[in-house]
Write the structure tokens for this entry.
Amino acid sequence: MQELLTLIHEHTGNHPYLFAFVIGMIFAMPLGVVTVIALKQRNHHGFFAGFKVALTCVSADAIIAFIVFTSYNIIVDEFRNHQNQLNLIMGIIFLILGLMMIRQHEKTPPKAGLKLHFFVLSITLFNPGNTLALITYKLLVSPTEDGIPVFSNIAVIATGAILTWLSVLKFVPNLREKQKAQKSSAKKIPIGGILVLIIGTSLCIKYFF
């Protein structure tokens, strides 16, 4: 991620808000667990149900950005000193999520309530990758502690993330509808839940080794 941010900065360095916008778009790329949750909500309960989950994720990223931009030196030190603990916390969250996904496999998930939104918020807040990316972003944009316009940068990052989420929720196909069309009675393997369990287990193992 650091190499990617550096490459993007080389091409957008003279336009800091463009850099922030691109970073926001990258943060919301459909690669993580939250994407699965948001798409399931969209598939079963409509576009806005999925978008609410996306907004929770964007809000968490904004919180991380605010903390990093306003307390850079403290965050860097704490992040370095507690990397293993963060991995353990993320591992436990992923294990719980994986079990939930397997349990809900081929069932209609309930419409996202406070518990699910809190869960998505926790997953994003304790994601070491996002925190490290924002630390790198802060370092590239402004090596000095007070040289970055905090709220304007957060707003632009959030705008880029929301645009990507809108695109993902709009254009990623509804696999549930395709499965209905195929009328397959074969038992489906909960691949997503199994992968999440594997990720969670690997993060927990890192804590002990």
